Amino acid sequence: MKLRIALYGALREADPRGYLELDVPPGSTIASLRELLAAHLREHAPQVNAGLVRICAFASSEEILHNHREVPEGLELAVLPPVSGG
Amino acid sequence: METVTDDLHVAVVERAEAALDVAAALDFVSDPRFGGIAVFVGKVRDFNLGRQVTGISYDLFVPLALRTFQAIGERARADVGAPLKLYIAHAKGDLGLGDLAVVVAAGTPHRAEAFRACRLAIEAVKHEAPIWKQEHYVDGDSAWSEGCSLCEPSSEDAHGAHGEHGHAH
Q1: CA distance B116 to B6
Q2: Cα Dmax for chain B
Q3: B151, B152, B156: best mutation site toward chain A, by most A Cβ within 10 Å?
Q4: Chain B closest CA to A69's CA: distance in Å?
Q5: What does the pLDDT look like over B107-121, one tens digit per residue?
Q6: Residue B62, pLDDT score
Q7: Residue B115 exposure: Cα atoms within 13 Å on the Cβ side
């Protein structure tokens, strides 16, 4: 399935649209999505540090989704680099 | 972009539309029951990690930021165990030196609870809310600040309710 992932912080620089679209096999976990995203960035966005994905969180607009969670269908997700508010 | 109940006001304010308003925060947390109000105001400063800063751009994932602020408010309420009104507002967009980045205000019957709730809330905002800071420097360069990872399952335990840990933000 096609999954749209919104980009924030340093990862915005991966795509000027502010999001990426990945093909994700149904039933994938967040852990496997993490690997797919890192590979996508290495190939398509060499200007960003793909290693950052290792310490990013994935989230819906309602909650953080940890590694064991299944990628929800039909929702846009966001990839969240380490945060630095305040 | 804000969510307001009787006791909790959380907001994200686009800098181009308005500045954060400390007086509004004080007004919201004022109550005949409350003899103590603590306020934290975070401002853009001119120097960080040895570099002259000219401004900061804040990026936020707004819906989750508002939910996170609400969850922080509920946690603060449970933690202080006293009547509490809490106000949390964070700026979004391009800020100049001296601009207000964040305002947290807590009103409670006594000062100890107000300080405690205010401290808990600002530390949690810094460590848990989906907010990113890009500093702009006098030489024209910019950099996204290193921050706190939200993906470590242990991060909540590590940051806990009481505050400050090792790194410099």
Answers
A1: 20
A2: 51
A3: B151
A4: 12
A5: 999 999 999 999 999
A6: 98
A7: 3
